[in-house]
Specification:
Length: 104
Protein backbone atom coordinates (compact mmCIF):
# COMPACT_ATOMS: atom_id res chain seq x y z
CA UNK A 1 0.00 0.00 0.00
CA UNK A 2 1.39 3.37 -0.99
CA UNK A 3 0.85 6.38 1.22
CA UNK A 4 -0.18 9.51 -0.61
CA UNK A 5 2.26 12.41 -0.56
CA UNK A 6 0.87 15.89 -0.13
CA UNK A 7 2.49 19.32 -0.45
CA UNK A 8 3.89 19.15 3.08
CA UNK A 9 5.51 15.77 2.36
CA UNK A 10 7.20 17.20 -0.74
CA UNK A 11 8.35 20.33 1.10
CA UNK A 12 9.66 18.26 4.03
CA UNK A 13 11.53 15.92 1.69
CA UNK A 14 13.17 18.89 -0.04
CA UNK A 15 14.09 20.37 3.35
CA UNK A 16 15.73 17.13 4.59
CA UNK A 17 17.73 16.68 1.38
CA UNK A 18 18.82 20.35 1.53
CA UNK A 19 19.72 20.02 5.23
CA UNK A 20 21.82 16.89 4.80
CA UNK A 21 23.31 17.74 1.38
CA UNK A 22 24.67 14.18 0.80
CA UNK A 23 23.68 10.60 1.58
CA UNK A 24 24.17 10.23 5.32
CA UNK A 25 25.36 6.65 4.94
CA UNK A 26 27.83 6.69 2.03
CA UNK A 27 28.31 10.37 1.17
CA UNK A 28 26.81 9.95 -2.31
CA UNK A 29 24.06 12.00 -3.93
CA UNK A 30 21.12 12.68 -1.59
CA UNK A 31 18.16 11.38 -3.60
CA UNK A 32 15.64 10.33 -0.94
CA UNK A 33 14.21 11.53 2.33
CA UNK A 34 14.35 8.24 4.23
CA UNK A 35 12.16 7.69 7.29
CA UNK A 36 13.09 5.42 10.19
CA UNK A 37 9.45 5.02 11.19
CA UNK A 38 7.35 4.94 8.04
CA UNK A 39 5.22 7.86 6.90
CA UNK A 40 2.10 6.06 8.16
CA UNK A 41 3.25 6.98 11.69
CA UNK A 42 1.82 10.49 11.58
CA UNK A 43 3.19 11.45 14.99
CA UNK A 44 6.73 11.41 13.50
CA UNK A 45 6.01 11.70 9.79
CA UNK A 46 7.50 15.21 9.65
CA UNK A 47 9.92 14.79 12.58
CA UNK A 48 13.47 15.83 11.65
CA UNK A 49 14.99 13.07 13.80
CA UNK A 50 12.92 10.45 11.96
CA UNK A 51 14.43 11.30 8.57
CA UNK A 52 17.68 11.71 6.77
CA UNK A 53 18.85 12.02 3.19
CA UNK A 54 20.02 8.79 1.54
CA UNK A 55 20.99 7.74 -1.95
CA UNK A 56 18.81 5.20 -3.72
CA UNK A 57 21.10 2.25 -2.91
CA UNK A 58 21.47 3.04 0.79
CA UNK A 59 17.72 3.65 1.11
CA UNK A 60 16.97 0.27 -0.49
CA UNK A 61 19.60 -1.48 1.64
CA UNK A 62 18.38 -0.07 4.97
CA UNK A 63 14.73 -0.72 4.15
CA UNK A 64 15.54 -4.37 3.44
CA UNK A 65 17.85 -4.80 6.47
CA UNK A 66 15.88 -3.68 9.55
CA UNK A 67 18.62 -4.43 12.10
CA UNK A 68 21.15 -2.36 10.19
CA UNK A 69 18.55 0.42 9.85
CA UNK A 70 18.07 0.51 13.63
CA UNK A 71 21.83 0.62 14.22
CA UNK A 72 22.30 3.33 11.57
CA UNK A 73 19.66 5.64 13.06
CA UNK A 74 20.80 4.89 16.61
CA UNK A 75 24.39 5.82 15.71
CA UNK A 76 23.19 8.90 13.82
CA UNK A 77 21.01 10.23 16.64
CA UNK A 78 22.68 8.84 19.73
CA UNK A 79 20.92 6.60 22.24
CA UNK A 80 18.96 9.35 24.03
CA UNK A 81 17.56 11.07 20.91
CA UNK A 82 16.78 7.67 19.39
CA UNK A 83 14.79 6.68 22.49
CA UNK A 84 12.94 10.02 22.48
CA UNK A 85 12.06 9.55 18.80
CA UNK A 86 10.58 6.14 19.60
CA UNK A 87 8.57 7.68 22.46
CA UNK A 88 7.20 10.40 20.16
CA UNK A 89 6.28 7.73 17.61
CA UNK A 90 4.01 6.05 20.18
CA UNK A 91 2.09 9.26 20.92
CA UNK A 92 -1.31 9.73 19.39
CA UNK A 93 -1.49 13.27 18.15
CA UNK A 94 -2.74 15.12 15.14
CA UNK A 95 0.08 17.20 13.66
CA UNK A 96 -0.58 20.87 12.87
CA UNK A 97 0.22 20.76 9.14
CA UNK A 98 -0.14 24.53 8.70
CA UNK A 99 2.37 25.21 11.48
CA UNK A 100 4.77 22.61 10.04
CA UNK A 101 4.50 24.16 6.58
CA UNK A 102 5.22 27.62 7.95
CA UNK A 103 8.26 26.28 9.81
CA UNK A 104 9.73 24.81 6.67
Amino acid sequence: MRIRRDKLDILFSQYVRFRDKVCQRCGGKAQHCAHFHGRAKRSVRWDEDNCCALCFGCHQFLDSHPLEKVEFFKARLGEERFDKLNSRMRQVQKPDKELLTEGL
